[in-house]
Design brief:
By secondary structure, the chain is an all-alpha fold. It is about 60% helix and about 0% strand. The protein is built from 17 helices and two strands. Strands 1-2 form a two-stranded antiparallel sheet. A hairpin with a 2-residue loop joins β1 and β2. The chain is globular. The protein starts with 5 loop residues before the first helix and ends in a 19-residue tail after the last helix. GO terms for molecular function: monoatomic cation transmembrane transporter activity. Its main location: membrane. One of its GO terms (biological process) is metal ion transport. InterPro entries: Cat_transpt.
């Protein structure tokens, strides 16, 4: 299966891990009370951890035992860096070498378009650079989470936690931020820190670094440390990811601030400085962070719709974030601009983008919208809740964001299963799903006559 259908192999391994984590979390020793966790809650938490989503149907601070917390923490680390990437890192560590098959698997994990396709090697990361990318993944995971832990621990000790509890909670928060999960282990969540600029800034930086993607971190690392001329050039993927991410962060910042400025339940009761900071923080969290400080159920419907759009887009490709990815939406906007200007090619930063990338971007958008629509209709029918609340929760699940309107905990078991499937589809990725479904399709050895339908 690895050779004939890498996408199916990836989905199989990913799903097997979810089943294993479900069994572990359902066991009596995973709950603090020693009771068996209901299957729907155990499965939902396992999917939320492996898919680095952050939605929960139980109180994360009080329900799980230390063993349960360790299982969840291991799940978000595995889900954050990618199953096949982790397997390649472990294989490289044990054998001290990286074979072609491992390179192809890791390349497919960072770019699903390469799974089972004879695509050009004009990639953001070439096959010869996969070993360096894997090293960057491992080092960035360790270094960034360690740095975040060191910065968070003293702040928690100032809040009254002893050293060991502060260290544990700090590491948990660091992993949750960098992997863009959004789980909070402390009783009361982030409520004591709603106006803490220092702690929220540290968490925001962790989420931003996780959301831009490992290929971008790798490219920036090579640009700073590399001596060769090739490494002194920042590639198109990195430029598109950083530019689009900053555009969406600024757009979300201004939109949330302006729409919630006079809402006394959210930002209206804060001063100007805290209003601007809180809106910027929430904009960063829509990248897929999920460590929210404002209850979405108190927000205006217009703000929820803006956040829906931001969560649907998500973060960078091959990152710990979810969504359809910022490069996908960037390619679509560039294609619309090229069409409006009458250009034959989609261009950006002095480079031409192949039509295959545009077709995949359109496919990702349609698949993503279809999944969100189907899940929204199903949960609307089950719960009879307002559309804006249900749509927010569904898009948060699909984008593996974790911001919640408090609907997840109130869902019946059928709704939990639907939302879990939405998280699974959002994290596996629409490109991988499409490639897995199309793995058995036969290639045509002929072309049909062309005829142009009327569009637009």
């Amino acid at each position: 299966m690895i050779q004939s259908s890498p996408p199916r192999f990836a989905i199989l391994v990913f799903s097997a891990l979810i089943l294993l984590w479900t069994a572990l979390l359902a066991a009596p020793f995973s709950s603090r009370t020693g009771e068996v966790t209901p299957l729907a809650d155990a499965l939902f938490t396992a999917v939320s951890a492996i898919c680095v989503t952050g939605l929960s149907t139980v109180d994360m601070a009080t329900h799980w035992s230390l063993f349960g917390d360790l299982v969840i923490l291991a799940g978000i680390q595995i889900g954050g860096i990618g199953v096949l990437t982790l397997a390649s890192i472990l294989g490289m560590t044990v054998t001290r070498r990286l074979g072609l098959r491992q390179r192809l698997l890791a390349a497919g994990d960072t770019n699903p378009m390469r799974m089972g396709r004879g695509v050009s090697e004009s990639q953001a990361v070439g096959l010869g650079e996969i070993g360096g990318l894997l090293g960057t993944v491992a080092m960035s995971l360790v270094v960034i989470e360690l740095a975040l832990t060191i910065m968070i621990t003293p702040r928690l000790m100032m809040e009254g936690y002893d050293f060991w509890h502060a260290l544990w909670f700090a590491f948990y928060l660091a992993a949750s931020a960098f992997t863009n999960t959004g789980f909070v282990p402390m009783p009361g969540g982030l409520e004591p820190f709603l106006t803490d600029v220092y702690l929220l800034s540290v968490l925001g930086i962790g989420v931003f670094l996780g959301a831009i993607g490992f290929p971008v971190i790798f490219a920036l690392y090579r640009y700073v440390t590399g001596g060769s001329r090739a490494h002194k050039r920042i590639g198109l993927h990195t430029k598109l990811t950083l530019a689009t991410t900053l555009i969406f962060v600024i757009f979300g910042w201004l939109a949330i601030a302006s729409l919630e400025w006079d809402n006394p339940a959210t930002l209206g009761s804060q001063g100007t400085g805290h209003t601007l900071f809180s809106s910027l923080y929430m904009s960063v969290m829509t990248r897929s962070g999920g460590l929210g400080i404002i209850d979405p159920s108190d927000m205006n419907g217009s703000t929820l719709l803006v956040m829906d759009m931001l969560m649907f887009v998500g973060g960078g490709s091959a990152s710990t974030a979810g969504g359809i990815k910022v490069t996908t939406i960037a390619v679509l906007f560039l294609a619309a601009y090229a069409e409006a200007r009458g250009y034959r090619d989609v261009q950006a930063f002095g480079r031409s983008i192949p039509n295959e990338v545009l077709r995949v971007s359109v496919s990702v958008l349609i698949w993503g919208a279809t999944i969100v629509l189907a899940s929204t209709v199903a949960i609307l029918h089950i719960t009879k809740e307002p559309l804006d609340i249900v749509l927010f929760e569904v898009i948060s699940a699909f984008g593996t964001c974790g911001l919640s309107s408090n609907l997840s905990a109130e869902l019946p078991d059928s709704g939990k299963y639907i939302l879990a499937a939405t998280m699974w589809a959002g994290r596996v990725g629409t490109v991988t799903l499409a490639a897995a479904v199309a793995a058995t399709s036969r290639s045509r050895l002929y072309r049909l006559p062309e005829e142009r339908p009327i569009v637009g």
